[in-house]
Every structure is written in structure tokens, then in C-alpha cells.
Design brief:
It contains five helices and six strands; from the N terminus they run E-E-H-E-E-H-H-H-H-E-E.
Length: 207
């Protein structure tokens, strides 16, 4: 961690920006300050190593994908760049997954109106569970946004070919906007006999 060069020798700066003579700082506060700065420095260095490893791993998996494409004229992986790589003996696995960030356009409001019309029309026969599911799907989360997963889950409901419902589902599909994506890479050790995967944690919270 960088040493603060703007602090005169023999002084320490407190959280309010005030310069305090070192003789007036409690020994335990000095020890705490020293430990925190050491651990933060170590953590920063490890973070840089992990960032470099991620960049290297992503570059090498992309290189393999391009090699396979050049050799066979086909990409090793599924849609959106997802792919799973395995050791020849099945003892290890690397997964690359692209997660898209979705939002909805104005068509979503038309879908909600069509769904509301369906509920009114089905008022006597509509399941309370279905009503609750639909209401929850269009509620906003803590960030004030509609949960895309809940809305998209509505498309899996079978409403017996109801035309208005199908139009509402088409409106939901048209409303989908891909606003960005993030690529994840995960590492697993695999027990070849059982096929059980054990994640190799690179997250301090998971250790």
C-alpha cells in the first residue's frame, strides 16, 4: 500500500484529516493501523494476481475455441459463448458462462394490459396462485426495477392457447432488451467415479 508522503514525520492523520503527534496516539491504535495497512497491501497484491489469472484464463479458453473452429469449422461451445472444457481423464472441468443483463421496453406495459384483461375475463375460473404469480412478476425490486426472471417465467405458463395471453407473451418477447453481458469462468475438480464436481473457490467468502 502506498505510503502517505504528505504527513510530516512524527505525525499520524486521523479520520477527520487532523495531524496527531505519534506520541498522542495509543499503542493499540498504532498496531491496528499497521496491521490494516499490511493486510490491505497483501489483499491488493492478491487481487491483482487474480485479475491477471482471470485475463490469462479467458484468453487461453478463447484461443482454444478459435483453434477448434479453425480445425473443424465449428465452435466448441454453445450459444452466447458458453462452453465447458474437461480434462481428458474427467478429473477437472472449466466452465465459461456469458450472463446477459436484460431490461424491458415499452411493450411490457402492453403485455401487462393484455394480461390484466385476461384475468378479468377469467375472473371466476382463474387460479389464485396464477393471480399471485402475475402480480409478483410485475412488482419492482429494491432498485425500482422489474425482476426480468419473474416476467420471463410467465412465458412458461400454459393457458390453453388463449389468444390474448399469447399476444401478451409475444409483447414480452418483443420488450426484451439486452443491455450488457458479463463473462464468468469457474473451475471444478471432478470425481471421475461419481461425476461429483467440487468448485475450486477463488472468492474469500467461499473459503
Amino acid at each position: 500500500m502506498n505510503i502517505q508522503t504528505d504527513i510530516p514525520t512524527g505525525y499520524m492523520k486521523n479520520a477527520r484529516g487532523e495531524l496527531i503527534p505519534e506520541g498522542n496516539v495509543k499503542p493499540e491504535d498504532k498496531l491496528e493501523d499497521e496491521l490494516v495497512r499490511k493486510l490491505i497491501g497483501d489483499a491488493t497484491q492478491i487481487s491483482r494476481v487474480l485479475a491477471g489469472f482471470k485475463h490469462q484464463a479467458m484468453s487461453e479458453t478463447v484461443a482454444l475455441k478459435e483453434t477448434v473452429a479453425a480445425e473443424y469449422g465449428a465452435m466448441r461451445g454453445g450459444k452466447k459463448g458458453n462452453m465447458t472444457l474437461r480434462a481428458f481423464d474427467g478429473s477437472a472441468e472449466v466452465q465459461v458462462q456469458v450472463s446477459e443483463h436484460l431490461s424491458f421496453g415499452t411493450q411490457l406495459m402492453a403485455a401487462k394490459e393484455l394480461i390484466d384483461d385476461c384475468i378479468v375475463r377469467w375472473s371466476e375460473g382463474a387460479s389464485d396462485n396464477i393471480r399471485a404469480l402475475i402480480d409478483q412478476a410485475f412488482q419492482v425490486n429494491k432498485e425500482g426495477r422489474i425482476d426480468t426472471h419473474r416476467v420471463l417465467a410467465l412465458r412458461k405458463l400454459d393457458m390453453g392457447g388463449d389468444k390474448d395471453w399469447e399476444r401478451a407473451m409475444d409483447a414480452i418477447s418483443d420488450a426484451i432488451r439486452v443491455t450488457g453481458s458479463k463473462t464468468y469462468i469457474r473451475f471444478y475438480s471432478v470425481d471421475p467415479s461419481s461425476g461429483k464436481r467440487t468448485a475450486i473457490p477463488l472468492d474469500l467468502a467461499a473459503l
